[in-house]
Write a structure and sequence with these properties.
Its main location: membrane. This protein has 333 residues and is α/β, with parallel strands linked by helices. The protein folds into 2 domains: 214 residues, Spore Coat Polysaccharide Biosynthesis Protein SpsA, Chain A (Alpha-Beta Complex), CATH 3.90.550.10; 71 residues. It has 10 helices and 8 strands. 30% of the residues are buried.
């Protein structure tokens, strides 16, 4: 049984004076990979140069999330070259959120940094993350203050999602903050206790609380290859995020039902009064069809919202493992 964990509100207030030192500490980089063969060599060149300059012991945990190209072969070549590159090979594609969780489960560092290998998360920011950690922050997260590399549609939809999420959820999700961050070991241990299978990691990162500090950066273009995130996939991702942290989409139908009932009572009263005063009923076939169709549509929407939550309950109660590991490279056991 998973022991309960308490959450604390995230804070972006100034952190205390330096209380930690990177000396003798270990840094874990966690990088989920799905069909990333074109960008991996560039990624390792950039991140290894940055890590060497930081003067810390490190490991790079790469999670191959069922890639269909030569991603695994490229990862294994880098593992053979440098044993600090470790590889988890999942049995199939489980999705980025699950792959990230798999990486967090095996990361051993005192500090852990999830990062995308497409280099839209600049490795050069890790040094600033560590500075914030040394100053007392438990979480230092990147905030994309410049997203000009993204399309206008993507920027608008992302902004709309953050507003919708924060308006519907009790958890405050920092605007334009992704998975790219540094977390203290104790934050990672709390995240590992969370058992849900429909995982929205951005929300979980915010939910755990601790002392959090934002680090602004400009998001560059993808270094190579193409993103696997399409708008339909992003829509479902947003839906998972909202339903994981809010009951508002299902609660709202109680108010819709109440409003519809009051409207029906008012309309019925108007018909009665009109009949009493004018001695005839109101011809009603067109209006009746409109009311029936509108009521049917609202019922289907309500059932759909209910179904989203029932489906997630169904996924949780089955109790299947979050992921299946096929191979491990670079780990002792």
């Amino acid at each position: 049984m998973v022991s309960p964990v308490a959450s604390a509100p995230a804070s972006n207030a100034p952190v205390p004076a330096p209380t930690r030192s990177r000396v003798g500490k270990r840094l874990s980089i966690v990088a989920p990979c799905f069909n990333e063969q074109e960008v991996l060599d560039l990624f390792f060149d950039r991140i290894e140069a940055e890590l060497a300059a930081l003067g810390v012991e490190y490991e790079i945990v790469c999670v191959n999330d069922g890639s269909r190209d030569h991603t695994l072969a490229v990862l294994l070549a880098h593992h053979q070259r440098d044993p600090r590159v470790k590889v988890i090979n999942l049995a199939r594609n489980f999705g980025k959120e699950t792959a990230l969780s798999a990486g967090l489960d095996v990361a051993t560092g005192d500090m852990v940094v999830p990062i995308d290998v497409d280099l839209q998360d600049p490795p050069e920011l890790i040094g600033q993350f560590i500075d914030a950690w040394e100053a007392g922050a438990d979480v230092a997260y990147g905030v994309r203050v410049d997203r000009s590399a993204d399309s206008l549609l993507k920027r608008l939809t992302a902004q709309g999602f953050y507003k919708a999420f924060n308006g519907l959820s009790d958890v405050d999700l920092p605007y334009n903050a992704g998975d790219f961050r540094l977390m203290d070991r104790r934050v990672v241990e709390v995240l590992r206790q969370l058992p849900e299978r429909n995982r929205f990691m951005k929300g979980l990162f915010a939910w755990v609380g601790f002392r959090q500090q934002a680090i602004p950066y400009a998001r560059p273009e993808r270094a190579a290859g193409t993103s696997s995130w399409r708008y339909w996939k992003l829509w479902n991702f947003a839906l998972d995020g909202i339903t994981s942290f809010s009951t508002a989409p299902i609660r709202v139908w109680s108010y819709v039902g109440l409003a519809a009932g009051l409207t029906a009572v008012a309309f019925a009263g108007a018909i009665v009064l009109r009949t009493l005063f004018f001695g005839r009923d109101v011809p009603g076939y067109p209006s009746l069809m409109v009311v029936i169709l509108m009521s049917f549509g609202l019922q289907m929407l309500a059932i759909g919202a209910l179904g989203e939550y029932v489906a997630r309950i169904y996924q949780e109660v089955k109790g299947r493992p979050l992921y299946v590991v096929m191979d491990r490279y670079g780990f002792d056991s």
